[in-house]
Model the fold of this input.
Amino acid sequence: MSVPTCQVAVLGAGIVGAACARALAQADFQVVIIDPNPIGSGATAAGMGHILLIDDSPAQFALTQNSRQQWNDLAPELPDDCEFVKCGTLWLAADEDELDEVRRKEERFRAAGVAAEVLDTRQLAAAEPNLRAGLLGAFFIPDDRVIYPPCAARWMIEEAQRHGTQLRTGVSAIEVTGKEVRLSDGSRISVEFTVHATGCGTAKMLPGVPIRPRKGHLIITDRYPGFVRHALLELGYIKKAHGTDTDSVSCVVHPRRTGQVLVGSSRQFDAESKDVDPRMLARVVARATEFLPGLTRLSGIRAWTGFRAATPDGLPLIGPYPELPGLYLATGHEGHGITTSLGTAELIVDHLTGRTPRLPLEPYLPARFSGVPAHA
Amino acid sequence: MPETIRIKVNGVAVDVPEHTNVAAAVTRAGHVHFRRSVTGQPRGPLCGMGICFECRVTIDGQPHRRSCQVLCRPGMEIQTDDA
Ligand SMILES: Cc1cc2nc3c(=O)[nH]c(=O)nc-3n(C[C@H](O)[C@H](O)[C@H](O)COP(=O)(O)OP(=O)(O)OC[C@H]3O[C@@H](n4cnc5c(N)ncnc54)[C@H](O)[C@@H]3O)c2cc1C
Ligand code: FES
Done:
């Protein structure tokens, strides 16, 4: 039996797999992208779609800066249904500790030469009239945006297809053995490289890869144009995003181009069911309402959950899986994978071509974890 | 005899009996189309019991209120989407 050949199999057609397929196809690889489900229907459909800079570690800051630049360069090309809006981010400071964090952010951004601004109480109230009175200030990042992720994933795959990529949905990869990928319909594809962009699915196929699903709840309102104007995050968010195993909620509120208000979010490990938990959703809304009292007057029309693929250090796993030559990981993006999909794709092309990388490769290598076999 | 109260629909004064709901008042003011759907189609009350959300109007500046579920109060200002 003849086995069809493709240079690279990308497993998973979420935003990360889509970005990898596009970048690889543009670098003249012959690509097949495989997913049992429709494009972008995993975490990519559930996420909030904030394209933002995260400066909690030098590696995350570098990856998000690279990625955001790529997103902003794509702005003129993205189709209208991606709803790409340059709303900027406001990190909200509610107490003196958080105001200190605003100052530390200001230093880090200045050192990196990235545009940002500190707003005082009065400037913040003018920027967002629906915020409660008495917030101490905010850190404003003008070039952050929001996007509708599943449409962006679909567009990237269309771009990849224009460069010859084959899309195979309705089948999953069940085994990757060196130079071959075995699919659920019994067929096999012979490959030189495989890129695992399976998000929370990675740990199921590759035990030992340290990824834990972390559930989040979101709710979206009817259309109230102008209710918020920027993507709003409380400064406590990063502490909670990294924090411990305990359940947490933080205020994250986005304006959508439709005038809808997207409200999040929670973080929960070990929550297996996809169902909306009304108590957790109530906590999410209560937290957001502490910042935006007028939220209680808006009607929510839909609530849902999604799972983030969390790693122990909050950084994604990008690079070779040491035990199996030819297998690469592009997974574990926790709550930032919409943003970092583009930087991830660039790193994957760096690995596969051996060209000189713009980003450091080391901080994202899967081999940094002892659970992953360490030798190359 | 119920008392009459005065409200405004799209800026025009309308007198309605006390305990009239907003949907009835807007209809009495001569409007069939209460709002426009996302794609611009005209919409109006359907279920009359708070389920279908087709009867939404802006009441005293607050958008997306279900008119069939709200009673008129003196001085209330109601806007339909075509106002
Ligand atoms: C509540 C919430 C809010 C978020 N907000 C943001 C935000 O504001 N900004 C941001 O940047 N990120 C955000 N994220 C994170 C972001 O959504 C994810 O990091 C991102 O979608 C991950 O994309 P992915 O392609 O890795 O995973 P997914 O979208 O989950 O895609 C993985 C795909 O792999 C497929 N798959 C699984 N197993 C196999 C197999 N064996 N063979 C083939 N295919 C397989 C699945 O079907 C799936 O389609 C948020 C996430 C959540 C849950
Ligand atoms: S008419 Fe159906 S909700 Fe008012």
About this structure: Chain A has a mean pLDDT of 94. Chain A touches chain B at residues 222-224, 258, 297-299 (CB under 8 Å).
